[in-house]
Specification:
Elements (H helix, E strand, L loop, with lengths): L5 H4 L13 H18 L15 H4 L3 E6 L14 H16 L3 E4 L8 H10 L3 H18 L15 H15 L1 E4 L4 E4 H10 L15 H9 L4 E11 L4 E3 L18 E10 L5 H6 L8 H11 L1 E11 L2 E7 L10 E4 L5 H5 L10 H4 L5 H13 L3 H4 L9 E8 L6 E6 L11 E4 L5 H9 L47 H15 L2 E7 L4 E2 L12 E3 L5 E3 L37 H4 E4 L8 E5 L13 H6 L10 H8 L12 E4 L7 H14 L12 E3 L3 E7 L5 E2 L5 E3 L2 E4 L2 E8 L11 H7 L2 H10 L7 E2 L5 H13 L21 H19 L3 H18 L5 H11 L4 H10 L16 H4 L4 E7 L2 E8 L5 H10 L1 H7 L4 E7 L3 E6 L1
Parallel strand pairs: 1-2, 1-20, 10-12, 20-21, 22-27, 28-31
Antiparallel strand pairs: 3-4, 5-6, 5-7, 7-15, 8-9, 8-14, 10-13, 11-12, 16-17, 16-19, 18-19, 22-23, 22-26, 24-25, 25-26, 28-29, 30-31
Helix pairs in contact: 2-28, 5-6, 22-23, 23-24, 25-26, 25-27, 27-28
């Protein structure tokens, strides 16, 4: 529902004050000062060197690097929920400038990705054209808010001069490997040197010099941090592309478009982020992030300690990871995930003699059974596959494995409750101790062996059990062979003993496992960064030399991906770039001494996350065409220092929805660049702050269709649209929900400063809050009162009193300095709502006192307001006679003498009931306070001559008297 403020928008009449602060005046003031800031380069942050080097005095100040999460330029433009974080960082950045910091605050655009491409396909508009138009609109909307960005540093990820360095970083990762002993990435050339010298043995024997070029490429691919492999991926036919695990919802559908996602085996590029799992976990402790975000990352990485156990199968082996190796004697069957690469290898041509009918799924051969089951499993989400309540399904693959502790032959099944994304994609099933294994064993008539002594009285015969029994406190039983016995041991001791036996016999080893999987890094789309990789006639991947970067995205006539029936899991992707023959097949001299050769380009593109993995570095040195970033500049803005042991951005503000996507990926890239010596900061973002969401009411008719919120009327507590009663529910704000309010509307109706104040005053920044257009007028009236306290509305002249501070009354000085002290603390702590409340309280005090406001008070009031409402502050500062911009003025400092109250109120209680209130000095002693309380006439009357058993004094605010 829309509300207007007639006072704000009504034209000036003969009766109206001609110089009153109105929406029209606000618009004129705001546009004028925005032009001034642009012309003067007011927000330019100087670097210590390079083409952005500037004022040495500014560079010598302490620095603050403040960032917002990369915005995507949507075609719908901004609604009032979008600028919440941008306004907050702007207020904080302005405050930091006023407290003596060299502040870097700018904004670019994350402009590659699926939304622009989908819009292009639907409308026939090239994604570059639509994206650039969207960026232009967003820049205009953000400028109107008065955001103090250093515009020299802005860029978009689609700029070739930007993605040149995205491609360059990919090549650094491709040409690196992770040294587990050194715990860091090293150049792949150092690994080659180890193989060539014999320092590192070539797997399978032989020498490096004896390997063919293809064999060398395959071997190095097992180590490279960026590598291509044939592996199970999330295939989305409806989008025509594969997706990372993080881009698939819990119900197995695409985050974009809500299409079904299937498991399929394709050759794709991956990033070996798993090599950094321990460091990604450990370094979280040094970051100033919300604990909820840290917990999400820890859970996503999923570190668990246990053992690797090898189960022999026909001269080969199936490796499992288990956190309970002490239960190994209870393993009576094995399960492979349907996607496991060993399924095909171990599936025989015919069923072994004696195979039970229940194990075959009714199929004539193991291969038929496995193929049918795989197709069935591919259509289910991971959540569906792991649901505890569902019936357990699976088929026997026709092979048996050997349990290493007792030599028993255990059947191997495929079942969808085992996922390839955790552990090794294979489990040893211990049905007595795991409920899912228990249900599967019952369904397929498999043995259940009690190996942990039950403590709940159920007995040790599993045939009588209704569920599995798991405990970390019970004793181990039925678990011994000729070499090792676990019987009678507790779980911890048993785990240690069996792990030692596994390592001694070569059947396994103690190990750490992670839930984290390598990052799927290729997309079958057009609108993304091309890979700087070409393939020779033997299919060997070669990196382009840096001199050939950027590899620009070619113009193509058909940039739409080939999409398929969303439910057809048997389809395969076709990339738009593959249809550009002249671009795909090229003759190049890669500078490797072989001269010009014919190559085939990689036709996948990078995911939209690539450009946002390092953009904080480009903000530092945006015009550098020779280096990723100048080391001195990077050290200045992001290098480690006291309180920032890993370096990084001083403040990063954005939504909590990026906890394990962007944030985890960016941390990984930073660590690789740090290991290779390109940056001094091992972490990209030191302090993270998650702003809440601005919500809005959604109104729906009887069909459940959203109706325009602005057209809804409220009558007697009910809501109507076109005469029809509609429902109301608080939810997101958005164009599709027909409840979006644009910042342009509010700026036109009240001005940008009012919008800024309202969004900051709505509540704590980190909580969600409902938008209410009717409440915006409250902040507009605050600005009108502020204006009246400095400017005469009838003449337009300054109305302050030119007096010395010594002539200001004590109450006003006390109100001023308490406001200064409180606002300073609130702005430092990003408590913008309470800072505005304190400004309002001071402004109201001045209004109530009446008369001209003393200049020393007026000037400091304007400085307090400057970070929050910068346009009106600049205007008033100029009217107060100053020729410099308020942006770089010093923030007021409170006089401690006026911050402390002259008196405080002390409550006197008798039997817990308040009987008197005393005005006392804040420094009153307990002895003097007790005497004053007992002498008070109200207290004497209340006691009525009764004796006193005890007096409890909490100076200066409480005295509690207990009568005898």
């Amino acid at each position: 529902m829309s509300e207007t403020n007639p006072a704000a928008t009504a034209p000036v009449t003969a009766d109206a004050a001609p110089h009153r602060y109105t929406a029209a005046m606000a618009a004129e003031i705001e546009a004028r000062w925005q032009d001034f800031w642009d012309a003067e380069g007011t927000y330019a942050a100087p670097n210590p060197k390079g083409d952005l080097a500037g004022d040495p005095e500014l560079v010598a100040r302490p620095k603050k690097f403040i960032m917002d999460m990369f915005p995507y330029p949507s075609g719908a433009g901004l609604h009032v929920g979008h600028p919440l974080g941008y306004i907050a960082t702007d207020v904080f950045a302005r405050f930091q400038r006023m407290t003596g910091h060299n502040v870097l605050h700018t904004l670019g655009f994350d402009a590659f990705g699926l939304p622009a491409e989908q819009y292009a396909v639907q409308t026939g508009t090239h994604p570059r054209a639509s994206t650039e138009a969207n960026m232009k609109n967003m820049v205009s909307q953000l400028r109107r808010l008065g955001l103090g960005h250093d515009k020299r540093r802005s860029f978009a990820t689609i700029d070739p001069e930007y993605y040149k360095w995205t491609q360059w970083i990919f090549l650094q990762i491709f040409n690196s490997w992770y040294d587990d002993e050194a715990k860091r990435a090293r150049p792949i050339s150092e690994l080659v040197a180890q193989f060539d010298s014999g320092e590192r043995a070539v797997p399978g024997g032989g020498t490096w010099s004896a390997l063919t070029e293809a064999e060398r490429a395959d071997l190095l691919g097992e180590y490279r941090l960026a590598y291509a492999s044939d592996a199970p991926v999330n295939w989305c036919p409806g989008l025509g592309t594969v997706l990372a695990n993080e881009e698939v919802t819990a119900d197995g559908r695409s985050e974009r478009g809500n299409f079904p996602v299937f498991k399929s085996k394709l050759r794709q590029w991956n990033m070996r982020i798993t090599a950094y799992a321990d460091r990604l976990l450990d370094d979280l402790d040094q970051l100033d992030w919300p604990e909820a975000i840290k917990l999400q990352q820890r859970n996503w990485i999923g570190r668990s300690e246990g053992a690797r156990v090898d189960f022999p199968v026909d001269g080969e082996r199936i490796t499992v990871f288990t956190t309970r190796p002490d239960t190994l004697f209870g393993a009576t069957y094995m399960v492979l995930a349907p996607e496991h690469p060993l399924v095909e290898k171990f599936t025989p041509a015919a069923w072994p003699e004696g195979t039970r009918d229940a194990w075959t799924g009714g199929h004539a051969t193991p291969a038929e059974a496995v193929a049918a089951y795989r197709a069935q499993a591919a259509s289910k989400s991971d959540v569906e596959r792991q649901a505890e309540a569902k019936d357990k399904t699976g088929v026997f693959i026709g092979a048996y494995a050997t349990n290493p502790v007792n030599g028993e032959q255990v059947p191997v099944f495929v079942a969808d409750y085992v996922l390839m994304g955790y552990g090794t994609g294979a489990i040893m099933a211990v049905p007595a101790g795991d409920q899912r294994d228990f249900e599967f064993a019952r369904a397929f008539e498999l043995p259940i062996r009690c190996i942990v002594e039950p403590t709940d009285g159920r007995g040790t015969d599993p045939s009588t059990w209704e569920s599995a029994f798991a405990s970390y406190d019970a004793k181990i039983m039925n678990s011994s062979n000729d070499e090792v016995s676990l019987d009678g041991l507790g779980v911890v001791e048993a785990k240690e003993r069996i792990t030692e036996w596994l390592e001694r016999t070569g059947a396994g080893a103690g190990t750490v496992n992670f839930r984290l999987r390598d990052w799927l890094f290729s997309r079958q789309r057009y609108w993304g960064e091309p890979f700087p990789i070409v393939y020779d006639e033997d299919g060997i991947a070669h990196p382009l030399p840096a001199s050939m970067l950027p590899l620009e995205l070619p113009e193509v006539e058909d940039y739409s991906p080939r999409t398929f029936d969303p439910d057809d899991a048997d389809t395969k992707p076709e990339t738009p770039l593959s249809r550009n023959e002249d671009w795909v097949h090229v003759t190049l001299d890669l500078g490797d001494g072989r001269g010009p050769r014919r190559y085939r380009r990689e036709t996948n593109t990078m995911p939209n996350w690539a450009g946002s993995c390092w953009y904080e570095l480009r903000y530092l040195d945006p015009h550098n065409s020779e280096q990723l970033v100048d080391p001195e500049i990077e050290q200045y803005w992001m290098g480690p220092r006291e309180g920032l042991p890993h370096g990084g951005v001083d403040l990063y503000v954005g939504g909590a929805e990026h906890a394990v996507l962007h944030l985890l990926y960016a941390r990984f890239w930073s660590k690789v660049l740090f290991d290779l010596g390109h940056v001094s900061s091992a972490e990209p973002f030191h302090k993270l702050f998650n702003q809440g969401m601005i919500q809005a009411y959604v109104y729906r008719d009887g069909r459940g269709i959203a109706v325009p919120a602005a057209e809804v009327e409220e009558r007697d507590g009910a809501y109507f649209h076109g005469g029809e009663k509609v429902s109301r529910l608080l939810g997101k704000m958005g164009k599709s929900l027909k409840n979006a309010v644009t910042p342009d509307e509010i700026c036109a109706e009240y001005g940008a400063d009012t919008l800024r104040l309202y969004e900051m005053a709505m509540g704590p920044l980190d909580v969600s809050r409902p938008w209410d257009t009717r409440a915006v007028v409250g902040q507009f009236r605050l600005l009108q009162r502020l204006w009246r306290n400095v400017v005469d509305e009838n003449t337009g002249r300054l109305s302050v009193a030119d007096v010395a501070e010594t002539d200001v009354d004590a109450d006003t000085l006390r109100a001023l300095h308490k406001a200064i002290d409180g606002v300073r603390q609130d702005l430092e702590g990003m408590r913008f709502n309470t800072a505005i409340a304190k400004v309002t309280e001071l402004n109201n005090h001045l209004t109530k006192v009446g008369g001209p406001v003393p200049r020393p008070v007026a000037e400091r009031l304007v400085l307090l307001v400057a970070p929050l409402a910068p346009h009106v502050a600049e205007e008033l500062w100029r009217k107060l006679g100053h020729t410099s911009s308020v942006v770089h003025e010093g923030f007021p400092v409170a006089d401690p003498a006026y911050v402390v109250d002259e008196t405080v109120t002390c409550v006197v209680q008798i039997k817990g009931k308040v009987k008197a209130r005393l005005e006392v000095s804040p420094s009153v002693s307990e002895e003097d306070l007790e005497k004053a309380a007992l002498a008070d006439e109200k207290v004497v009357a209340a006691l009525g001559g009764a004796g006193i058993r005890k007096v409890i004094v909490r100076a200066p605010k409480l005295v509690n008297i207990v009568p005898a």
